[in-house]
Amino acid sequence: MSVVLEQQRAGQLGRQQAVHLLAGVALALTVGVLVHELGHAAAAWLLGGRGVRLDLWAWPPRTLYAGAFSPAGWAWIDMAGGLATFVGGVLLAAASRRWGARGSWVRDVGGSAGGAMAIIDNTQWVVLPVRYAISPSYRLNMRWQVHHGLKLVPDSIKFLVRTHLPPLVVAMVAAELMVWYTGVFLVE
Length: 188
What we know:
Blueprint: H1 2-9, H2 15-46, E1 50-55, E2 62-66, H3 71-99, H4 105-119, H5 124-134, H6 136-147, H7 155-163, H8 167-185
Antiparallel strand pairs: 1-2
Helix pairs in contact: 2-3, 2-4, 3-4, 3-7, 4-8, 5-6, 5-7, 5-8
Protein backbone atom coordinates (compact mmCIF):
# COMPACT_ATOMS: atom_id res chain seq x y z
CA MET A 1 0.00 0.00 0.00
CA SER A 2 2.90 2.36 0.66
CA VAL A 3 3.92 2.22 -3.01
CA VAL A 4 0.40 3.23 -3.99
CA LEU A 5 0.41 6.09 -1.47
CA GLU A 6 3.81 7.32 -2.66
CA GLN A 7 2.64 7.32 -6.27
CA GLN A 8 -0.64 8.96 -5.34
CA ARG A 9 1.25 11.75 -3.57
CA ALA A 10 3.37 12.21 -6.67
CA GLY A 11 0.25 12.26 -8.87
CA GLN A 12 1.24 9.02 -10.59
CA LEU A 13 -1.49 6.64 -9.45
CA GLY A 14 -2.40 4.68 -12.54
CA ARG A 15 -5.70 3.06 -13.36
CA GLN A 16 -4.38 -0.43 -12.63
CA GLN A 17 -3.10 0.56 -9.19
CA ALA A 18 -6.36 2.34 -8.41
CA VAL A 19 -8.19 -0.90 -9.24
CA HIS A 20 -5.75 -2.79 -6.98
CA LEU A 21 -6.44 -0.34 -4.15
CA LEU A 22 -10.22 -0.66 -4.54
CA ALA A 23 -9.94 -4.46 -4.78
CA GLY A 24 -7.96 -4.48 -1.56
CA VAL A 25 -10.55 -2.42 0.28
CA ALA A 26 -13.37 -4.61 -1.08
CA LEU A 27 -11.45 -7.71 0.01
CA ALA A 28 -10.93 -6.21 3.45
CA LEU A 29 -14.60 -5.40 3.87
CA THR A 30 -15.74 -8.92 3.04
CA VAL A 31 -12.92 -10.91 4.64
CA GLY A 32 -12.69 -8.41 7.49
CA VAL A 33 -16.29 -9.01 8.54
CA LEU A 34 -15.70 -12.76 8.59
CA VAL A 35 -12.44 -12.42 10.56
CA HIS A 36 -14.11 -10.01 13.00
CA GLU A 37 -17.01 -12.35 13.72
CA LEU A 38 -14.69 -15.37 13.89
CA GLY A 39 -12.74 -13.49 16.57
CA HIS A 40 -15.90 -13.11 18.68
CA ALA A 41 -16.87 -16.75 18.04
CA ALA A 42 -13.43 -18.07 19.01
CA ALA A 43 -13.37 -16.05 22.22
CA ALA A 44 -16.88 -17.16 23.19
CA TRP A 45 -16.05 -20.80 22.41
CA LEU A 46 -12.73 -20.69 24.31
CA LEU A 47 -14.55 -19.23 27.33
CA GLY A 48 -17.10 -22.07 27.30
CA GLY A 49 -19.83 -20.55 25.16
CA ARG A 50 -22.47 -22.87 23.69
CA GLY A 51 -24.30 -22.73 20.40
CA VAL A 52 -21.73 -20.48 18.77
CA ARG A 53 -22.78 -19.54 15.26
CA LEU A 54 -22.15 -16.73 12.82
CA ASP A 55 -25.02 -14.71 11.39
CA LEU A 56 -23.22 -12.99 8.51
CA TRP A 57 -26.36 -12.20 6.50
CA ALA A 58 -27.93 -10.05 9.21
CA TRP A 59 -27.27 -6.35 9.40
CA PRO A 60 -25.07 -5.76 11.18
CA PRO A 61 -23.43 -9.21 11.00
CA ARG A 62 -23.11 -10.82 14.40
CA THR A 63 -22.00 -13.86 16.35
CA LEU A 64 -24.62 -15.71 18.38
CA TYR A 65 -23.70 -17.71 21.47
CA ALA A 66 -24.92 -18.54 24.95
CA GLY A 67 -23.00 -18.82 28.16
CA ALA A 68 -22.52 -17.45 31.64
CA PHE A 69 -19.42 -15.32 31.22
CA SER A 70 -17.63 -13.29 33.85
CA PRO A 71 -17.27 -9.54 33.25
CA ALA A 72 -13.69 -10.18 32.13
CA GLY A 73 -14.93 -12.91 29.78
CA TRP A 74 -17.48 -10.56 28.24
CA ALA A 75 -14.74 -7.95 27.82
CA TRP A 76 -12.53 -10.47 25.97
CA ILE A 77 -15.42 -11.42 23.70
CA ASP A 78 -16.15 -7.75 23.00
CA MET A 79 -12.50 -7.05 22.20
CA ALA A 80 -11.83 -10.25 20.23
CA GLY A 81 -13.48 -9.14 16.97
CA GLY A 82 -11.45 -5.96 16.63
CA LEU A 83 -8.30 -7.70 17.82
CA ALA A 84 -8.72 -10.50 15.26
CA THR A 85 -9.28 -7.97 12.48
CA PHE A 86 -6.26 -5.91 13.52
CA VAL A 87 -3.96 -8.94 13.75
CA GLY A 88 -5.35 -10.33 10.48
CA GLY A 89 -4.73 -6.99 8.78
CA VAL A 90 -1.19 -6.79 10.10
CA LEU A 91 -0.46 -10.37 8.94
CA LEU A 92 -1.96 -9.73 5.49
CA ALA A 93 0.01 -6.51 5.05
CA ALA A 94 3.22 -8.18 6.25
CA ALA A 95 2.71 -11.16 3.90
CA SER A 96 1.99 -8.93 0.91
CA ARG A 97 5.06 -6.86 1.69
CA ARG A 98 7.23 -9.96 2.11
CA TRP A 99 6.09 -11.86 -0.98
CA GLY A 100 4.79 -9.16 -3.29
CA ALA A 101 7.17 -7.38 -5.62
CA ARG A 102 7.22 -3.58 -5.32
CA GLY A 103 4.29 -2.26 -7.37
CA SER A 104 2.77 -5.72 -7.96
CA TRP A 105 -0.92 -6.47 -7.56
CA VAL A 106 -0.16 -8.85 -4.65
CA ARG A 107 1.56 -6.07 -2.76
CA ASP A 108 -1.01 -3.41 -3.69
CA VAL A 109 -4.14 -5.50 -2.99
CA GLY A 110 -2.72 -7.23 0.08
CA GLY A 111 -1.35 -4.02 1.52
CA SER A 112 -4.55 -2.05 1.03
CA ALA A 113 -6.68 -4.94 2.33
CA GLY A 114 -4.44 -5.32 5.37
CA GLY A 115 -4.54 -1.60 6.05
CA ALA A 116 -8.30 -1.41 5.70
CA MET A 117 -8.78 -4.42 7.98
CA ALA A 118 -6.41 -3.10 10.63
CA ILE A 119 -7.58 0.51 10.61
CA ILE A 120 -11.19 0.85 9.44
CA ASP A 121 -12.75 -1.78 11.70
CA ASN A 122 -10.88 -0.51 14.74
CA THR A 123 -11.58 3.21 14.32
CA GLN A 124 -14.56 2.74 16.66
CA TRP A 125 -12.07 2.01 19.47
CA VAL A 126 -10.71 5.57 19.14
CA VAL A 127 -13.78 7.62 18.26
CA LEU A 128 -16.54 6.10 20.39
CA PRO A 129 -14.65 6.03 23.72
CA VAL A 130 -13.99 9.76 23.31
CA ARG A 131 -17.71 10.34 22.68
CA TYR A 132 -18.50 8.12 25.67
CA ALA A 133 -16.15 10.21 27.84
CA ILE A 134 -17.46 13.65 26.85
CA SER A 135 -21.20 13.05 26.40
CA PRO A 136 -23.12 12.15 29.58
CA SER A 137 -26.34 11.43 27.65
CA TYR A 138 -24.56 9.08 25.22
CA ARG A 139 -22.83 7.35 28.16
CA LEU A 140 -26.12 6.81 30.02
CA ASN A 141 -27.90 5.59 26.88
CA MET A 142 -25.13 3.12 26.02
CA ARG A 143 -24.94 1.80 29.59
CA TRP A 144 -28.69 1.22 29.58
CA GLN A 145 -28.51 -0.62 26.23
CA VAL A 146 -25.65 -2.87 27.38
CA HIS A 147 -27.33 -3.72 30.68
CA HIS A 148 -30.57 -4.59 28.86
CA GLY A 149 -28.82 -6.82 26.32
CA LEU A 150 -29.54 -4.81 23.18
CA LYS A 151 -27.57 -6.17 20.23
CA LEU A 152 -26.66 -3.03 18.27
CA VAL A 153 -24.20 -1.58 20.77
CA PRO A 154 -20.68 -1.23 19.31
CA ASP A 155 -18.04 -3.59 20.70
CA SER A 156 -15.91 -0.75 22.06
CA ILE A 157 -18.82 0.62 24.11
CA LYS A 158 -19.75 -2.80 25.48
CA PHE A 159 -16.10 -3.21 26.48
CA LEU A 160 -16.08 0.17 28.29
CA VAL A 161 -19.32 -0.51 30.15
CA ARG A 162 -18.19 -3.96 31.27
CA THR A 163 -14.61 -3.11 32.26
CA HIS A 164 -15.06 0.39 33.71
CA LEU A 165 -11.71 1.35 32.18
CA PRO A 166 -11.18 5.07 31.54
CA PRO A 167 -12.54 5.72 28.02
CA LEU A 168 -9.70 8.06 27.07
CA VAL A 169 -7.11 5.43 28.00
CA VAL A 170 -8.87 2.90 25.73
CA ALA A 171 -8.97 5.51 22.94
CA MET A 172 -5.28 6.33 23.37
CA VAL A 173 -4.20 2.66 23.29
CA ALA A 174 -6.26 2.07 20.12
CA ALA A 175 -4.87 5.22 18.51
CA GLU A 176 -1.33 4.18 19.38
CA LEU A 177 -1.85 0.79 17.71
CA MET A 178 -3.05 2.53 14.55
CA VAL A 179 -0.09 4.92 14.61
CA TRP A 180 2.25 1.96 15.05
CA TYR A 181 0.58 0.19 12.11
CA THR A 182 0.89 3.17 9.78
CA GLY A 183 4.51 3.73 10.81
CA VAL A 184 5.46 0.12 10.12
CA PHE A 185 3.45 -0.68 7.00
CA LEU A 186 2.85 2.62 5.21
CA VAL A 187 6.42 3.88 5.37
CA GLU A 188 9.21 2.02 3.63
